[in-house]
Amino acid sequence: MTKAEFIEKYKGNQLNIGNYNIELNLITDASFVMGCVHDDGVWKIFKTTERTGHYIIKELSNEDAAFDYFYELVLIQHNTATQSY
Fold first, then answer.
1. Is 2 helix (H, G, I), strand (E, B) or coil?
2. Model's pTM, two decimal places?
């Protein structure tokens, strides 16, 4: 899916990703961020933790593949955040 399709699907499904925020414009070292950004000619999927800055999970050259992969990660985070004990 494209970036625009991801945004529409994410908002439409009202996913709860807990403490995390979504970033789609630039790589950041802010705490608790999941992101997919176009940087240096590739789509970089990254995540940050509370204190250690960002780390790249995957780099893909195709926007559709990048956002398909990123959406799956967001769904995993949603399932983790909404899991009842």
1. coil
2. 0.92
Number of domains present in the structure of the chain: 1
- Whether residue 53 is contained in a domain is answered as yes
The one-letter amino acid at 23 = E
Per DSSP (E only), the strands in 1-85 are: 21-23, 33-39, 42-48, 54-60
In this structure, are residues 47 and 55 in contact, taking their beta carbons and an 8 Å threshold?
Answer: yes
* Structural domain boundaries, residue 15: 3-78
What confidence tens digit (pLDDT) does each residue in 36-49 have? 999 999 999 999 99
Cα of first residue to Cα of last residue in the chain, in angstroms, is 33
Structural domain contains residue 43 = yes
Identify whether 85 is part of a domain.
no
